[in-house]
Amino acid sequence: MANLIISIIIGILAGALAGKLTNQSGNGCLINLLLGVVGGFVGGWLFGTLGINIGGIPSWAGALITATVGAALVLWIWSLIKK
């Protein structure tokens, strides 16, 4: 249960970061946060599939980087769908 809560918190932070990085502020905060949670799962799957391992940093930081990359990808796809 604690791991799920931590994953959601990291996803929310990743959504906020990805929204700033991709300049997707027009979606609204809630959409960015929800897409960030989804992006966390997408980033984990993507990095795992590509064999990318972020080592040498604290695990929470690696999870945040992974989730932010996934969230940015999801936000980009969302912007294409939204058009």
Question: Can you walk through the features of this model?
Answer:
- With 83 residues, the chain is mostly helical.
- It is 80% helix and 0% strand.
- The protein has helices spanning 2-21, 29-50, 59-82.
- Helix 1 (2-21) crosses helix 2 (29-50), helix 1 (2-21) crosses helix 3 and helix 2 (29-50) packs across helix 3.
- The longest helix is centred in the last third of the chain and has 24 residues, at 59-82.
- It is globular and about 40 Å long.
Q: Descriptors for this entry?
A:
83 residues; mainly alpha; globular
Produce a short descriptive summary.
Helix content is 80%, strand content 0%. The longest helix has 24 residues, at 59-82. 33% of the residues are buried.
Number of helices: 3
**Gyration radius from CA atoms, angstroms:** 12 Å
Query: Which overall shape is indicated by the principal axes computed on the Cα atoms?
Result: globular
**Mean pLDDT metric:** 82
Largest sheet report: none
Task: Say how many strands there are.
Answer: 0
Termini distance? 37 Å
Helix/strand/pairing category = mainly alpha
Topology order in helix (H) and strand (E) letters: HHH
Helical content band: over 70%
> Oligomeric state of the chains?
single chain
The percent range for strand residues is under 5%
Low-confidence stretches: none
Give the SSE map.
Layout: H1 2-21, H2 29-50, H3 59-82
